[in-house]
Design a protein that fits this description.
The protein has about 70 residues and is mostly helical. The chain has one domain: Helix hairpin bin (Helix Hairpins, Orthogonal Bundle). Helix content is about 80%, strand content about 0%. The chain is built from 2 helices and no strands. α1 packs antiparallel against α2. The longest helix is centred in the N-terminal third of the chain and has 31 residues. It is elongated. The protein starts with 5 loop residues before the first helix and ends with a helix. Belongs to the UPF0437 family.
């Protein structure tokens, strides 16, 4: 594997920043839902799945960045 150039790393860092904001919003949505229970209780699975997916994607990209930075 060739070393990534700084442009690739910067693009990945920018993507991680956006994913972090998305994950934070998903966390807040889950928090807000929990405070409003039992109103909208039926949305728990979908809101939780969005939060789970956002954090999973964020962690994958952070792991990739760490790998690329140490390569």
């Amino acid at each position: 594997m060739s070393n990534p150039d700084s442009t690739d790393l910067e693009a990945l860092k920018a993507e991680i920043k956006k994913l972090s904001a998305k994950a934070t919003q998903a966390k807040m949505d889950l928090h807000d839902l929990s405070e409003e229970l039992p109103i909208s209780w039926e949305t728990i699975p979908s809101v939780a799945q969005r939060a789970h997916d956002a954090y999973a994607e964020l962690e994958r990209k952070r792991a990739l960045l760490k790998t690329l930075e140490t390569a």
